[in-house]
Amino acid sequence: GLPAALTDVVTEAWGPPPGEVYRDGNDLVFPGLDLGHVLVAVQPPRGFGENPIAVYHSPDLAPTHHYLAFYRWLDAAWGADAVVHVGKHGTLEWLPGKGVGLSAACAPDAALGDLPLVYPFVVNDPGEGTQAKRRAHAVVVDHLVPPLTRADTYDDLARLEGLLDEYARVATLDPGKLPAIRAQVWELLVSAEIHRDLGLHDAPSEDDFDDLVLHVDGYLCELKDAQIRGGLHVLGRPPAGDAEIDLVLALTRLPQGAVPSLRATVAAALGAGDDRTGIDVVEAECRRLVAALAADGWQYRGDDPTLAWICDRLHPALSATTDEVTNTLGALDGRFVPAGPSGAPSRGMAHVLPTGRNFFSVDPKALPSRLAWDVGRALADRLIERHVAETGHPPESVGLVVWGTSAMRTSGDDVACALALLGVRPIWAEESGRVTGVEAVPLAELGRPRVDVTLRISGFFRDAFPNLVHLLDDAVTLVGGLDEAPEDNYVRAHGADDPRIFGAKPGAYGSGILPLLESRDWRSDDDLAAVYLAWGGFAYGRSGMGVAAPEAMRRRFAAIDVAMKNQDNREHDIFDSDDYLQDHGGMVATVRALTGNQPRAFFGDSSDPSKPRVRSLAEEAARVVRTRVVNPKWISAMMRHGYKGAFEMAATVDYLFGYDATARVVEDWMYERVTEAYVGDPEVRKFFERSNPWAMRSIAERLLEADERGLWDASDQALATLRSAVLEAEGWEEGR
């Protein structure tokens, strides 16, 4: 049986066993496919869907009787010798209980018992993989990131690119036609809604039109050159053909240690600029070179160090992707899984390849590293520059979301960003590289006021980096105690008594926004804020780790001018994970509920650590919608993956909706384009019918919900398309 302490909380939440979840008479039902020696099953539901009111007050909701019984049944009744969790990530390692050193009364330990757990896990997510190791004794077998490809151009974007080329020709050879071309350019900008992306409302004058063309050309170049996922990774299958060429190009955009960037080398050799034409020429030449290597069996006899590295190191590492299955089977055979590093290979970290290894992460006491300090400081500078350009003054109070996985992947960029905003810097021990403390940057050197920073840390960050929680708290205390004028020190101006670091209740994880959205049991910003505050209203610092501080959190969040989240790689984006909308979107919604005003929401991009950038969240949303969400290249890639590809498309719509519900960043045209691309296209509709009718129904219902909630003023045509899709999908389901 369960320890008494756990039995009590489970019974309090779900009544006496067996409860009401997945129950048939007195029996519990476990869905799965029994193949004899292998059982393929779906992890049981966490419980918030079955008890939606708990979202508002129980972030540490106990798992259901059904959940706990399933894992015990696997062991004691079905007779499993081991469990394999497939897909990053499940809920077991996030159940309530201690962060490390779990006891029998902690839910993950009570569920899993002593069953060995083997966990294929994406190599770029060391944080959540480490969580599975710490709280579910998992043996990780890491796997490759999804195939990466260039977004390229399509539809209106391709037509606009052609018009800009025509504009350049006419301006040189036949200027009399310029007025007609200008009209066509502006008309297409408006019909494609690109003028909104660029913050334009009226057509510029003839004198200013050349500047507009340069601006549009640069934006099209950025969209076309963006890296997106070109499909899904299949465990143990190395990329081949064009997929390998695309991935090699993605991994050689930036330097890999001492190996130069292929792009930079080719650009220098060609004397190419960084405009659209120059980048297209460089990309074409890089592709020609890599395709020639592939055609020659990945043999290279020249003296270019990057091409030699591709053949000697990168291609063999990608070919060894088969180790993912070999070592998963080896783990099930009781064999050792070799260790290896973790990180984002496209961010100059191809040394994490080959995959198929049990990854490790970082030395927590060495964060932030010196390189992370450079990147974090640059992100802080870009944010302040952007705010000054828009408002004429620096922000007074910034809310920053900080995750443990990002800290591991970047060696502490976000921590460095927070320190830089406060106007302090780390002190490193020369011999070890470990951080021993912080010191204030003199105001004369800083050249601006010290910005007040309020942090929403993830549960994993809390568990993995208590030393960084203390370091950040020390920084706030240091700045609050400086003898400086309030106009130079916003921490001092706002009062340093309130805590600045907030997170989930000890033993709990998450922000509660996703289960609330999934329950559809919310009406207003107040509901979103109530959950965000209930789940995150615990203060962390030297004076206590996880002290209930709901009023302090309300005060701090009501003072936030800017809500910021940074992303360090392009192997995923804001619309293919719920974490962004929950933590960052939840922050925006909470500030809006507390103040009645929409805070400025910014998105830091350090996917190229040498050139960190800060965009508004609205700009990032438009960028991701255009480059991936409605890009036929991505949709076609998902269609190659059948049921799972359809699921990914439905998840994208859910995350798009969730970010809009919280942060109000999705414009009407985006919903219209998604409707056209996912539901209105006959070929895509046939794909859903064949592969996953439930996904199309989910997409259509979610888009209709956006209209019903006033997030989108849908056109009559879009509404008709969506309503017919729901009925059609219901027919498909009934016919199965």
Question: What's a concise summary of this model?
Answer:
With 736 residues, the chain is an alpha/beta fold. The chain is 51% helix and 12% strand.
Question: What do you see in this structure?
Answer:
It is globular and about 85 Å long. By secondary structure, the chain is an alpha/beta fold. The protein has 5 domains: 4-143, no CATH class; 152-225, no CATH class; 242-358, no CATH class; 368-619, no CATH class; 630-734, no CATH class. It has an 8-stranded mixed β-sheet with strand order 18-17-16-15-12-19-20-21, sandwiched between helices. It contains 31 helices and 21 strands. The longest helix is centred in the middle third of the chain and has 22 residues, at 370-391. A hairpin with a 6-residue loop joins strand 13 and strand 14 (435-440).
Q: Topology, pairings included?
A:
Elements: H1 4-14, E1 23-24, E2 27-28, E3 32-34, E4 39-41, H2 65-78, E5 83-84, H3 107-112, E6 117-122, H4 126-136, E7 138-143, E8 148-150, H5 155-173, H6 178-191, H7 194-197, H8 206-225, E9 227-229, H9 242-251, H10 262-270, H11 276-295, H12 305-319, H13 323-332, E10 339-340, E11 358-359, H14 370-391, E12 397-402, H15 404-410, H16 413-422, E13 424-428, E14 435-440, H17 443-446, E15 452-457, H18 459-464, H19 466-480, H20 490-494, E16 501-503, H21 513-519, H22 525-536, E17 538-541, E18 544-548, H23 550-558, E19 562-567, H24 578-595, E20 600-605, E21 613-616, H25 617-629, H26 632-639, H27 642-663, H28 668-680, H29 682-691, H30 693-708, H31 716-734
Parallel strand pairs: 5-6, 6-7, 10-11, 12-15, 12-19, 15-16, 19-20
Antiparallel strand pairs: 1-2, 3-4, 8-9, 13-14, 16-17, 17-18, 20-21
